[in-house]
Each structure stands twice: as C-alpha cells, then as structure tokens.
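Re: the request from the purification team.
They wanted to know what the chain is likely to look like in 3D before they choose a buffer screen. I agreed to run a prediction and write the result into the notebook, where they can find it.
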Amino acid sequence: MYALTPGVKSYVEEKLGKAVQKHSHLVREVDVRLSVRGGELGKGPKFDDVTLFMKKHGVIRAEEDAESVYGSMDMGFCWVVIVCKKFFDMPPLSVTESIEQLENGDHDFYGFRNEETGKINILYRRKEGGYGIIIPNEDGEAGTLESYNTYMLAAYKGSTYQFLSKKENCGFPAIYNFGDSNSDTGGKSAAFHEVQPPNGQTLFADRLDLQYLSAYLDSISAGFRNGANFATAGSSILPGGYSPFYLGLQISQFLQFKKRTTLLSDLPNTNSKWSSSKVNIPKPEDFSKALYTFNIGQNDLSYGFQHSHEAQVLASIPQILNNFTQAIHQLYDEGALNFWIHNTGLIGCLPISVIDYPLKPQGLDAIGCIENQNKVVREFNKQLKDRISHLKAELPHATFTYVDMYSAKYQLISSAKKQEYGKACRDPTKYVSWDGIHCTDAANVWLAKSILNGSFSDPPVPIEQSCSH
C-alpha cells in the first residue's frame, strides 16, 4: 500500500477546487482516483482519473498519465471544463447590430453571422476599452500584425482578431456639409425668403468643439473658419426636385468656395483689408483634414412618390446614386479624405405621409408606417451602402463612415410614447415631429446622441474618430 501524503492531498484539493468552484451549482460530487501503476513503487502514485457527478447532466470524466503525480494531475485537471450547449438561429447581422445585441445582453462576447461575409464572427469587449472581433481565416494560416488608427488586425492560429479600439480624436479643423432641410442652417432663408430663427443647431459642430456652421449662402455675419454648410431645404441629389440647389450645384458652390478662399489666403498681409478677411476663412491645408458630411437623398424619393409610382422610384435609384458617387469623386479630387454619410430615413413614417395615405389602415406596419414606402427606402439604403463599399476600393486614401439614420429613427419612433400626427404641437419637447416632416429639437438631440457615438455607424466609430479606419 502507498500512503497518500498531505502534500498530494492538499494539491488535489487546491487544483480541483479552483477548477470546479465557479460551477458548484452544477456539480454534485467529485471523485479523484490515484494509483501506483506502470513503474516502480518509489516513484509514487499516478493520477488515474477525475469524475464529476453533475446535478442534471450526467457524468464528466477525465483521464491522464505522466511521469509524476503532480504532472499527471495538472494535465488531468486541464480537462475539467463544463460546457453548456445552446442551439439557436443566427440570422446575418452587421457589426453595428451585433454591438447593440452585446450591449443589450449580460455577456462579454457575442457570436453572430457577419452579413457582409456570411462567416461566423465573435464580438467581445476589450479590457482596455472598445470591442474586438474574431474572424476565421479561410486559409487557416496565421498572418501578421497590421496597425490602423481605429482598427488593428492581428492573426493567430488561423483566426483574425479585429480590435475596435479607443484612439486619439481626429481633431477635424472644419466640417463641410451637403444636404437638405435635415441639416440646413439658414441656406433657404438666405436664398429665398426669411425663415424665422432658429435656423438649425449644428450638433455635429458642438460634438467636435467647432463653431456654429454657417450657411454658405448667408452673407451676413457668416464665419467660415470651421467650414461651411451647403445644405438647403428641399434639396435632392438629382436636379429638378423641390429645390434648385441639388447636390451637383452644392458641389459647385464648394469648389468655388475652396478656390476663392485659397486665393485669399495666398495674398500677402500688407493690405489690412484682406488680412482681416482671412480670420473668417479656413486655412488651405484644412480642406484635406476636414470632415465632409452628407444627409441627402430623402427628397429624391419623396418627390418620386409624389409625382410617380413606387416602381418608377425604385428604377430611379441607380441614377440617383450615380450622381452621388460623382459628387464624392469630385470632392476626393479636391483633396477631401474623410466622409461621414447618412442613409435616408423613414419616409413612410412621416406624419404628413401617413395622414394622406389613402389605403390606411391597410399597408401600415406595426408602428403605423407605410410599409411600401419604407421598403423602397430600405432598397435605396442597401444600394447606397454597396456604392460606399465600391468607393472604398476606388478611393484608397479616403475613409467612409456609413451612418444608419433609418434604424436610428425607427428606434426613436417605435419607442416614443407620443407622436403628433396633426398640427404643430404646443410643446415640441414631447413630440418627435413639429410639422409632420421635420424632427423637433428634442428628437434631433436624441438622434445626435445616438449616432455621433458610433452606435449606428459602419464601422462603429464615434464621429471624432472617423478620420481613419
């Protein structure tokens, strides 16, 4: 007989105790067997097996052998892992959607099928902040470490680890915005007839610690040191809609603005008249460092719904996006590198659309929106995202952030306790829309907080870190 020494007994209790302690609610009893076998008695006992008697899931047994009792126990205890299996459907999700699922759960990781690749990815929280994604390599071979400002890629044992890390802010010196009434800060009022203040609040500029973004068309008290806003109410991507200030014209205005401010900056400071003017214009080197934002396309679809049929609106989407792509190329040729692009919101949820919809209550979805119109919007957004993917390949030095305003607004509307579907409300802070088309200040603040932190962006980066992916 071989007597069990206190050291061996203590080692068993310590090692095995750590292994099963966190699963004590599952384990009923543990049995460890040691034996003298396969050698001389002087070499002591060998680890034979460890058996876990589970409360609900039967028995788990591990066996191992080594030259010493301590070595064999170390190997054996490494196998003491309790695994719970769950089977569930895994529909394709974007990275942004998977982050939302992770935040809504109580785990530190989330497995999902990436909608872009069809592959299973694992999203997890990083200790140093941000998120990481484990992406299987198709070739099963390890790669090398590559560093990026926002994403870092490393490969290890056939898997790629993609880290969405916290980085330094970009320090954008200026914003140049192109859009419609959703981002107009006085363009329509300056061009046509006076619109009573307020003419919009530049929440983006606030987030980036920049001054109020003046409308390009506003010649009174305008300051363009931190950029300019070319958006005008009613504007569309294609010409011939509600407003003459379609996207192509806005791009032409920017080109003229850039040319004139660059010429002014190059003038010598001997003339005090020109020297004082330089205070209100951007520096020539700021154009390549600036952020170029887009919130346009909704009026192309709205005008189409108003003057044609849904099938014709669907057929017009490729041409709309051709013009949009051309605008991006023009800006890129002028040195623009950082693009923040909103998709189009829920036209079928606008109160003015629902009020005049002749088929209601038929044709409305669960939250009272016109499903057919929103279906067209979703197709527009899908094709827009595809175009942005192509632009990334065509313009390798640029960075693109696609912002899912559709989902952000859908979440806002579906979770709102009250909505105003009639006349302008007395207390706009309690409603989503104040005129049946546009969001109230309260709704805009909610949306800005939701999208500027990257929650609805692809890639999921906050606006102040969107200069490099």
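For the purification team: The longest strand covers residues 27-35.
Please add any questions underneath this entry.
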